[in-house]
Amino acid sequence: MRMRTLGGTGIKVSAYCLGTMMFGQWGNPDHDESVAIINAALEGGINFIDTADAYSGGESEEIVGKALHGRRDEVILATKVNFPMSPDPNTRGNSRRWIVREVENSLRRLRTDYIDLYQIHRPDPDTDIEETLSALSDLVRSGKVRAVGSSTFPAEQIVEAQWVAERRGYVRFRCEQPPYSIFVRGIEAAVLPTCQQYGMGVITWSPLAAGWLTGKYRADTGVDMTGHRAARLPVRFDLSLPGNRAKLAAVEDLIKLAEQAGHSLTHLALAFASGHPAVTSVIIGPRTMDQLTDLLAGAPVALDDEVLDQIDQIVPPGVTLNAPDAGWLAPSITDPALRRRPAGSRSAA
User: Fold this and answer.
1) CB of 261 within 8 A of CB of 339?
2) How crowded is residue 70: how many other Cβ atoms within 10 Å of its Cβ?
3) Whose CA is closest to 171, among 158, 180, 162?
4) 3-class SS of residue 323
5) What is the structure's pLDDT at 120?
6) Predicted local confidence at residue 224, as pLDDT
7) What is the pLDDT of residue 174?
8) pTM strictly above 0.85
């Protein structure tokens, strides 16, 4: 497994990062099997594990904590904070109040006294980035956290965070964790160049586009909307949406391309995500041991320019086929009220 430096931290991480979202009630509920998968990934050359407090309501972190007993120092351990952890509106977001409380919960679940990389899982329009960076800086100075990063932030907010950190003397985000795959290429336009400009590492998630780039969903079989992922995130699978129909058509072209190149579709997709010069590590998220074995087998695959050019013909650079797959949309897009003046204040042009 190739090792790469995470931003300017000096931390060496494997080109594949083991994502653990599928361990626990969201995917594989068998803790012993999940622990075995984590150990097999470490034996396979991975030294980087990514989880989050919200994955299966904290269960994923607990499984990771079990697996790392006795070998914690071998691993670069990353987790995240932001998503709701209870109905209480203050048990979510990026406020100092919540971050300093939730990091203690993550440390307890992970059975460790430090986190190598603590990431803000999504932007929080209700919290000033200065508030968030101030809290994260205190965690780094206390030794509970080694480095901090963002996840699924747009380029303009990445830049703002860098400037606030410089002006206020806070620790800065050393990496960004965005979605990136053949079907989700929007970050090529601004996020990846911005990360390169600021010397940030990039840890990409969903290189297989939630299973689409394994060939699981085909034109002749369609999509089973009762499946776990489809039921939880229907906008990423519902074929009534044009973007999902476009993915279904692109899969057929990509399967042919992969066969011509002598690779499986899965390995083609992983090699695409890993091959971008801005990308440090690609998160793989196996649910079973067989899936892990297949994913690890794709690590040596590299794509030549001819194959990459053909991928560009199927899905052009900078294009995300289905907007909800981008992982986060600004409230100015999702909330119509933010784009319209109150009825009483409108005037004719």
Assistant:
1) no
2) 7
3) 162
4) helix
5) 98
6) 80
7) 98
8) yes
Indicate the residue type of 64: V
**Integer Cα distance of 246 and 209 in angstroms:** 13
Chain CA centroid to CA 343, Å: 40
Q: Which amino acid is at 111?
A: R
The residue type at 9? T
Active-site amino acid positions: 55
Own/partner long-range contacts of 156-159 (Cβ < 8 Å, ≥24 apart)? 157/123, 157/129, 158/191, 158/194, 158/195, 158/198, 158/200, 159/194, 159/198
Pull the structure tokens for residue 215. 């060939």
Relative orientation angle of helices 289-297 and 31-43, to the nearest 10 degrees: 20
Are 3 and 13 in contact by the 8 Å Cβ rule? The answer is yes
Instruction: State how far Cα 140 lies from the chain centre.
Output: 22
Residue with token string 């977001």: 93
Report the candidate in 188, 185, 127, 138 with the shortest Cα–Cα distance to residue 161.
127
Q: What is the token pair recorded at 242?
A: 């044009």
pLDDT of residue 229: 78
Q: Hey, what are 176's tokens?
A: 């960004």
The predicted structure's pLDDT at residue 344: 66
For the record, the structure tokens of 325 come out as 């797959």
- Residues of the chain short of pLDDT 70, as ranges, are 344-349
Angstrom distance (rounded) from CA 106 to CA 167 = 30
